[in-house]
Amino acid sequence: MERCCGLVTRSHKPVPLKAISVEVQVKSFVVDVASTLLYKNEEENPVEAVFVFPIEEGCTVYSFEAMVDGKKIVAEIQERQQARDTYDDAISSGEEAFLLEEDESSSDIFTCSIGNLPPNQEAAVSISFVKELLIEADGALRFVLPAVLNPRYTPQDAEKPSVTSHIPYVPKGEIPYNLKLSAQIQHPSGISRVQSNCSLTPLQYLKEDKTSAQVSLSEEQKFDKDVELLIYYNEVNKPSIILEAGVQTASAVAGTLMGDPIAMLNFYPKFPEKLTQSTCGEFIFLVDRSGSMADSSSNQLEGPTRIDSAKETLLLLLKSLPVGCYFNIYGFGSHFESFFPESVEYTQENMENALEKVKSMDADFGGTEILNPLKDIYSKACRPEQPRQLFVFTDGEVGNTKQVIEEVRKNASSHRCFSFGIGEGASTALIKGIAKAASGTYEFITEDERMQPKALRSLKCALQPTVKGISLNWQLPAGLQAVQLSKTPVAMFKGQRSILYAQLKGKLDEKSKAVATLEYTFMEQVIQNKLVFSLQPEEDSRLTVHHLAAKVMIDDLEDSSQSDSEDEKKKIIELSMQAGVISSHTSFIAVNKDLNQPVQGPLMRRDIPLSPPPMVYRCTMMMIIIVIKIGISGVAFGHQPRMMMCYAAAPNIVSFRSVAQSYRLDDDDSEVGSSVYFSAPLNVCGARPVCTTNLASPQKNTSSTCNLIQDPVIFIFKFPAEQKKKKFMIYFYPPWILSKSSKDLYSIDLYTFKMRRSVFKLISLQKVDGSWNLDAKLASVIGLTEQEIKNKMPSKNFDNVLWATILAVIWLHAFGAEYKDEWELLVGKAVVWIKVRAGPSPGDVVKAGNELLKTSVEQQEIGL
């Protein structure tokens, strides 16, 4: 009988992975990460430990080694099948072997296998990789160490099941291995601050000028959620270059990729401060409606669901589209459907029709099959003079990632693709891959981030006039040549960074300077971005820039239309082995041949468990500690309540314990009615029903436990008429309604909640042309009666619609400034409409609006 000892999974299988230690080195805009995985076999037989884990798309894995009994075993790059054969041969011969390979279907999943780990032996396995860091809209550099790997849905006709189908999951908090992480950061302009979704030690500066600092996780933690670092420099949007010296070895001599200096150029293309936006286009919104979109869009169980956030985002996007464009909306899951047979003109009737359909959207389409709706979209002819822009919203749980990316790439000449990855565990390979394939941008929405501002930021990019004639030119001393290693970008957007790599061949005069110029045409104007730099290269033993450049070259080869040809495959393998970086056709393999004797005994496979995807919760019996008097049918912003069904006896203990203050949100609001909200913690103890969000097919289980909600939440119980019935419903509501810490903050939180809802309601009332009608609905939002608004019109026969539109614009600037990035485009449309209707002197009307609303918004601030 198998003996279970040490850390075990919930199926009572021992876990040989005990701890993960991560060292992060950030140098300007590049991160170098070394992860060490500590294994110990506490069983009586040898084991094969298999760890399937996520890694961000764009990471370049350049080192894989193991430390066993004080001896370092360095892996080498081999062709993929050859590496597998080497691994299998070693195991069958009783040798210890280590294999690291990229998943065949998705480049953001890796598998680390340790074969023949003898009883009682420890092994420390180190994986090193480098990556370019993404810059957020607020200037932060975002580094993410992913922990969550969502199960990838594979279509029925797929040849192989997803690699994630074998991964065991354990509840949050029960991951049997800990994480330690430390980071060192360097930047010549100085480091301002570092933020994280995890608890950090205070930032410690290593130099007086604050150009070097270090920080770490404040304590070891369970590696059950993504670790995110947001790094802020004093100056970030400045062109820069890293010129890295090559190495001189037997295989890396002058003239080779690793032997020559490599330049990494970071450009921030210049654009006019105010851009003219396109007034045409075909906008297609492809929205994931698979079951996983019913999960919370944050780490908190009671938050709005992903599909709710997507629906609100669709409303904002529809309101922000330019007059004269065309649009359509697709939903996809195991099947797909579109709102219209083909894209329709952006009219008031079509927009209202679409918004009604958006309201009824739900996460009820089953699995995640995105390929078929993409094929349907591409099968329809593009409209003349209406460039196609595709927006894809998904949590990325797709098994055929490379197929999907290839489909987008085949049709890249006819459209641009803007993608959005929703929630932890979204496939970075899919989200980045489809955007890159069709010259768009990508965004990731994690934890408590709002989807709406990121979607609107992408829409601004889509509406930006096209950049043409992009080229990179050089001014170099005689005898020196620059060979561009990365492709010249085919699209550039305001606020976006462009990174290029080049190999410098010839003799470097370290006292000389060189000039690299990024040149392009924008709105009939030729623009040049010049970068002057010294030809004295930096020494870096890790060869960070060389590895990044090699990965870019490999990616370009893998993305080419001939990537499946034997010639292209050979080029990829040769480049991978020359640079020492992994690819889709190569793997790292190491064999420990110095064991005293062959490993003997039956080999037991052990799959390393991961944290579950969001909302995979098993619960014990809940002791109800609060009761709500009145039910509710809806919640703010049009969200439906988060519903769970617990199959258990109705609770016999109902008490008022730790009850926070109650609120009547809006007595006059028909959406809320007269419901009273309470807040209280939720205790967990006792028997074992299952909580599920799938009301159609609830699962019953009698062996699971988990933590539900420890912080105070807002919820409503609906008990059936007969208490003897075995099911009851719990409705969870957004967490921002009440403060979790101080009663003094309750009224502030409530005000913020109501203001956010008012902003959204006002936006929902806007018409296609950018105007607002003067009616009771608008009056209610801005806190006046319809008659009061009419009584204060600038003149007796003043245009009602013009007056209402100016008031709406002033109100948004005065009271909704916090959400400007969400309404900026639609208000811009309103301002254009106002200028046409109000004539050359709208100042008096703005003044009258300020007097009525008791605000002080300047005419210039509005754009009039």
Automatic annotation (TrEMBL):
Domain VWFA: 282-463
PROSITE patterns: VIT, VWFA
Signal sequence segment: none
Ranges annotated as spanning the membrane: 615-637, 800-817
Taxonomic classification: Eukaryota, Metazoa, Chordata, Craniata, Vertebrata
InterPro entries: VIT, VWF_A, vWFA_dom_sf
Record gene name: LOC102359610
The species this protein was found in: Latimeria chalumnae
Pfam family, one: VWA_3
Name of the molecule in the record: von Willebrand factor A domain containing 5A
Keywords per UniProt: Membrane, Transmembrane, Transmembrane helix
